[in-house]
From TrEMBL:
Zn(2+) binds at residues 337, 341, 360. It comes from the Bacteria. GO terms for molecular function: metallopeptidase activity; zinc ion binding. Its cofactor is Zn(2+). This is Peptidase family M1. Pfam families: Peptidase_M1 (PF01433). Gene3D superfamilies: Neutral Protease Domain 2, tricorn interacting facor f3 domain.
């Protein structure tokens, strides 16, 4: 998918703003994280990947056939292909007949290509092999996992978000360019094993050497880091969910000895998830490819139409509740959170890793919306407020652009609290739901810049939230709402401090019958109050819905 370019001005401006982080980036970071001239001229149309992993030798070999389109008239006759050490490219075949030359610079290969005309389509078949990087602490550290199940049998998979899909196969490793025509993954494994991947099973081919090739594929565009193999002693059960767009095929691939447990547990959790998220976000984005959960040895990841699951068939996050309220133990965190990424992350994907808050903040907030759908608004407020214990405010959420930099982990709880604050300031859940469903319709199967999502929310809500986003995403300061009660004159004075100039989050204060709306700024303002509505300004009531600190002051200072 051809990416939407950042405006040059915004990149330069933000780069200067981020210099204070004192983060030093290398040429390798730039090659990995930017649209280089050797990347810009070609648009990925399709990936067809084949891999043969050896559990015994921890060795992989295979190829990726990349179909692409030339999108620039004048361009270098070099193509950047990414493949991380210790894997190596063995050979590259162009349009089924010509062997291409290449040189390596770290984890980047520069491939010499023939002259190609604007609009023409071609393919390169890239053969690779080697002992791949093994994940040390999956899914947070990427790479192959060669482990054993409880019966001592081979169990293999890959995790690679952030580290990049080039950790295990050659590709254009930039999330701005998804294959428009989908992708396939063929895994050749021992006949005792089952291999599962994204989308639907397209082909099963036995070989004379005692191996079987399983070919899976998706019709939709897909992020390269979410194309993932799962190989083990899997059993399957399936059902059909009656969704907004009709019948949605649900498949569950679990280790054979967990089949009965999974049948009793997984469908209920998945149905609850789909009920809530199709309500809030609109239709599941990939009806054509179906939805599946696949059991894995790590906690789980948001692999498109292919969610990995390792949460022990229990509520919470492996027995923990990040909100500290106990509410998070009543539903399976991995099924809810990772599936939420099907809408934000897989359907809507950011061009640059620096904008990953679009993936993680919205998906973190999907947990609150799930709570709201199942338990109601007050439980959702309690859960969201509880997640603030995980906010550190040591670094801004948005890092530098163009260098494959991932922002602060605060993009999860802080981003979710930012969105909760915006929702309450809109004070119209029908409108807020329309914004969320509209995002998933407008940007369906697209890659975006974060600013596009911000502008959409401002446009559809009828209020400019740009300074609100800037406050929470680019600073580590928690805004303070100062309140001064002028009792003799029955007025409440208010202003924001500890914030950027221009911060203007509206506050809607609702009671049983009373309602007050204010739009504080960094200047003192006032609103008339009465005994019956003064309670609306109770600090706890405000802080419970808005990510602010409230301070009662005895006098107004300039």
């Amino acid at each position: 998918m051809k990416h939407n370019s950042f405006s040059f001005f915004l990149i330069v401006l933000f780069s200067f703003q981020m210099l204070g982080q004192e983060k030093q980036f290398t040429r390798a970071d730039t090659l990995r994280g930017s649209i280089t001239p050797e990347r810009a001229w070609w648009d990925v149309l399709r990936y067809d990947i084949q891999v043969k992993p050896s559990f015994k030798n921890k060795y992989t070999s295979g190829f990726n056939k990349i179909t692409y389109k030339v999108v620039q008239e004048n361009h270098p006759n070099l193509m950047q292909i990414d493949l991380q050490k210790p894997l190596v490219i063995d050979s590259i075949i162009y349009d089924k007949k010509q062997t291409l030359r290449f040189i390596r610079e770290g984890n980047v290969y520069q491939v010499k290509t023939p002259s190609q005309s604007m609009g023409s389509e071609h393919e390169v078949k890239i053969y690779f092999s080697g002992k791949p990087h093994e994940a040390i602490r999956p899914p947070w550290d990427g790479g192959w996992t060669f482990t054993k199940d409880e019966k001592g049998r081979p169990w293999m998979t890959v995790t690679c978000q952030g580290l990049g899909a080039s950790i295990w196969y050659p590709n254009k490793d930039h999330q701005s360019d998804e294959p428009d025509r989908g992708a396939s993954l063929t895994m050749r494994v021992s006949k005792e094993l089952m291999a599962v991947a994204n989308g639907r099973l397209l082909d099963k081919t036995p070989h004379q050497d005692g191996t079987i090739s399983y070919k899976w594929g998706v019709e939709n565009p897909i992020s390269n880091y979410t194309i993932i193999p799962y190989i083990g002693h899997y059993e399957n059960f399936a059902e059909v969910y009656k969704g907004i767009q009709g019948d949605l095929d649900l498949n569950y691939w679990v280790l054979d000895y967990n089949l009965d447990k999974a049948k009793d547990y997984m469908p209920r959790e998945v149905h609850n998830m789909l009920d809530a998220f199709e309500y809030w976000f609109g239709p599941y984005p990939f009806y054509e490819d179906g939805f599946k959960l696949v059991e894995t040895s790590n906690t789980g990841m948001e692999h498109q139409s292919n969610i990995s699951y390792g949460n022990y068939y229990a509520g919470g996050y492996r027995g923990n509740d990040g909100s500290g309220t106990g509410l998070g133990l009543t539903w399976d965190f991995i099924i809810i959170h990772e599936s939420g990424h099907e809408w934000f992350g897989n359907n809507i994907t950011t061009n640059d890793l620096a904008d990953m808050y679009i993936h993680e903040s919205f998906t973190n907030y999907s947990e609150t919306l799930f709570m709201d759908y199942v338990y109601g608004e007050e439980a959702a407020n309690d859960y969201n407020y509880g997640t603030r214990s995980g906010i550190q405010n040591k670094e801004p959420i948005i890092p530098s652009y163009g260098v494959n930099a991932k922002g602060s982990g605060d993009m999860y709880p802080k981003g979710g609290n930012m969105l909760h604050s915006i929702r309450h300031s809109i004070d119209d859940d029908k409108l807020f739901k329309n914004i969320l469903t509209g995002l998933n319709m407008t940007f369906h199967n697209k890659t975006v810049d974060g600013i596009e999502i911000q502008r959409y929310i401002s446009e559809k809500s009828g209020y400019d939230y740009s300074e609100v986003f800037a406050q929470y995403l680019t600073t580590t300061d928690i805004p303070i709402l100062q309140l001064y009660v002028d009792a003799p004159n029955n007025k409440m004075f208010y202003r924001y401090t500890n914030c950027i100039e221009g911060f203007n989050l509206p506050l809607v204060l609702n009671g049983t019958q009373e309602r007050i709306k204010i739009i504080p700024s960094t200047e003192w303002q006032s609103v008339p109050i009465q005994n019956r509505n003064q309670y609306l300004f109770t600090p706890w009531r405000i802080e419970h819905k808005y990510y602010l600190d409230v301070e009662l002051v005895k006098q107004m200072e300039e």
